[in-house]
Amino acid sequence: MPKAFVAHLGGGALTALLMLLGMISTMAFLNHWHIVWPSEQMLRFINALDRRKAPLIDSRIPVVWRPHFANIEKIFRDNQALAEENRQQIEMLDQRVKERTIELERLNLALREEIEERSKAEGALRLVNQKMQELSLVDGLTGIPNHRKFDEYLNFCWSQMLREQSPISIIMCDITYLKQFNDTYGHQAGDRCLQEIAQAIQASLQRPTDMVARYGGEEFFILLPGTDHAGAKRVATSIQQTLANLQIPHSGPLSDSCVRFSLGMATSIPTHGGSPESLMEAADQSLFRAKETGRNRVVALPVKR
Q1: Residues 6+ apart with CB under 8 A from 286
Q2: Which segments does the entry list as coiled coil (predicted)?
Q3: Residue ranges of the domains in the chain?
């Protein structure tokens, strides 16, 4: 810069000129790197520039430099307008973000509600399936286990007694002349007879591991895990006496004055070569022998090896 020109300027004017030249260099740097000067800083500088406008642009500044002052002010004004435009865009974007956030919260709430409803429905379905499973193992008339449950429990107990090498016994109970009873008194009376017998047998069992099941129309099977022949014989005799004490009237042509019962039993210690079916077959043969030899008695036959 020529010394004469510097000398021509006063101290305040020289300072302002140096500030302007510095700002021109700064703005050139920012524009080159596409950096937008924050509007707040620009406004503070413009306010400072406005306050010093009178002493900066006067007759002592050569005309050749004055366009630079106008260019600087234009740059500031343009950047201020750009800052305002950016602020408006940011506000619009912020508003869109808020609206989108509200929408996402609404969708999340709906999704949570749907998940809760599905969870409740799945829980209810599991309960229904569990209830159906339970009902499929229960005799609908008497409320005691049916033949399917008996077979499952027999297989389970057989495996357990095989490991323990303990005896297992089965008692089969048949109601004598139930068909004639139904013909004489009607099927509703026959149903009540079956229910009363099922409850009496159930009540006569002493251990929770023992099971009575209605296996057929007039047949009840009793499973006694861990029970030897002598123990099973005592249980069979007790059941026979309990049923006789019911004194259910039966005046059919082939019957006595009351309903009578035939019982067949069998006992076995499970082996790896044996099967639950062999035990069932022996008990069935015992029941057949009891019915064949006069009914109303307990018969026990050995299990075939």
Answers
A1: 172, 264, 265, 266, 299, 300, 301
A2: 90-124
A3: 85-135, 147-300
One of 114, 164, 218, 281 is an active-site residue; which one? 218
CATH architecture of the region 147-300: 2-Layer Sandwich (3.30)
Q: Is 218 a catalytic residue?
A: yes
Per the structure block, which two tokens stand in for 287?
A: 């029941």
Dihedral angle sign, alpha carbons of residues 229, 207, 143, 153? negative
Question: Which two three-digit tokens encode residue 59?
Answer: 């007759």
